Amino acid sequence: MIGRIAGRLEYRGSDHVLIDVRGVGYIVHVSDRTLAAMPGPGEAVALYTELLVREDLLQLFGFPTLLEKEWHRLLVTVQGVGAKAAMAILGTLGAEGVARAIALGDARAVQAAPGIGPKIAQRVVLELKSKAPDAMALAANPALTTSTAAGDDVLEPVTAAEPPRRTKAAAPVAPTRAAHSAEALSALLNLGYGQGDAAQAVAQAAGETPEAGTADLIRAALRLLAPKG
């Protein structure tokens, strides 16, 4: 599986780019938003990728962040949404916009993507609504929301390197209750909720379920913030 491409941008098409990696050219399909943010030909680029395998076709799809790649994976699980339709939705809304539209049940925002009709848009919102909090919780991890970097070294010949030294990995630090609440609050603010309402909902959710993680707090807070009646 090809998970990341880093090399020199050779040319930009209408919906894809050609990236030269040590003399091998890879055609990578990208969204309009990703294409607009890419540098000019000859510059170093890097993208996270997803390989689509069919009987008569192999296609690479590229994403600037792991979070956007994860949303693409979720979108294609919806019946009637193929890889290119998912790219159209991401190109129109971006990863945060997709999360906002699905969490708020805003099918019209999804429908704004080229080629997405009202039935498909409604299906996307309904089928992914329960998964949105998990994806929104991922957004709190900087490693998943930071664009993959491609330094100038990808343009130079490969040189021999010293064998890596084995070092003892540091034990991961578990997020605290306050960290979960802060991440949930940040996600709600990104959805457009006011500071006061969002903070109150997160505080109530955290008080009712002290052991809840970020995704569970987002779910509980969204239920509290949902219109009554």
UniProtKB/TrEMBL annotation:
The RuvA-RuvB-RuvC complex processes Holliday junction (HJ) DNA during genetic recombination and DNA repair, while the RuvA-RuvB complex plays an important role in the rescue of blocked DNA replication forks via replication fork reversal (RFR). RuvA specifically binds to HJ cruciform DNA, conferring on it an open structure. The RuvB hexamer acts as an ATP-dependent pump, pulling dsDNA into and through the RuvAB complex. HJ branch migration allows RuvC to scan DNA until it finds its consensus sequence, where it cleaves and resolves the cruciform DNA. InterPro entries: DNA_helicase_Holl-junc_RuvA_I, Hlx-hairpin-Hlx_DNA-bd_motif, NA-bd_OB-fold, RuvA, RuvA_2-like, RuvA_C, RuvA_C_sf. The gene is ruvA. GO terms for cellular component: cytoplasm; Holliday junction helicase complex; Holliday junction resolvase complex. One of its GO terms (molecular function) is ATP binding. Has three domains with a flexible linker between the domains II and III and assumes an 'L' shape. Domain III is highly mobile and contacts RuvB. NCBIfam families: ruvA. SMART domains: HhH1. Keywords: Cytoplasm, DNA damage, DNA recombination, DNA repair, DNA-binding. This is Holliday junction branch migration complex subunit RuvA. Homotetramer. Forms an RuvA(8)-RuvB(12)-Holliday junction (HJ) complex. HJ DNA is sandwiched between 2 RuvA tetramers; dsDNA enters through RuvA and exits via RuvB. An RuvB hexamer assembles on each DNA strand where it exits the tetramer. Each RuvB hexamer is contacted by two RuvA subunits (via domain III) on 2 adjacent RuvB subunits; this complex drives branch migration. In the full resolvosome a probable DNA-RuvA(4)-RuvB(12)-RuvC(2) complex forms which resolves the HJ. Residues 73-92, 108-127 form the Helix-hairpin-helix DNA-binding motif class domain. Pfam families: HHH_5, RuvA_C, RuvA_N. Belongs to the RuvA family. It is found in: Cytoplasm. It comes from Szabonella alba. Residues 1-64 are annotated as: Domain I. Residues 174-229 are annotated as: Domain III. GO terms for biological process: DNA recombination; DNA repair.
